[in-house]
Amino acid sequence: MTIKMNEHEKKILGEFNLYKEGKTVNNRYSGVEVYLCAEALSLYDSLLGCESLLYKLSEGILPETLVSFEKTEEIFLTAREVFRKNWPKEFMLLVD
User: Fold this and answer.
1) pTM of the model
2) Domains in the chain: how many in total?
3) What is the reported pLDDT for 73?
C-alpha cells in the first residue's frame, strides 16, 4: 500500500522507515485488538514513541538539549494525521 501524504507531511516525516511485516496490537486502555499492516504499524509506533518523548520532555525527565519538544510535537501531529487519513477505522480503535 502507498501511504497518502501531502508534500508537507512527506517533508515532516522524511524518509519514513517502514516495518517489513504488520502485526496485531492492543489498545492500551480498552484492550481492543487491531491488526495493522506494516505501514500502519510503523506510523502507530512512531506516535507512541513521540508521545513518550513529549511526556518525558514536559516532565523534565529529558532535557530539551537532547530532543526538541517542538520538532517532536510536529512529527507526532503529522504522523497522527497521516495515520488517521489512511487507516480511519484503526485510528478510531487505537488512538481516538
Assistant:
1) 0.85
2) 1
3) 93
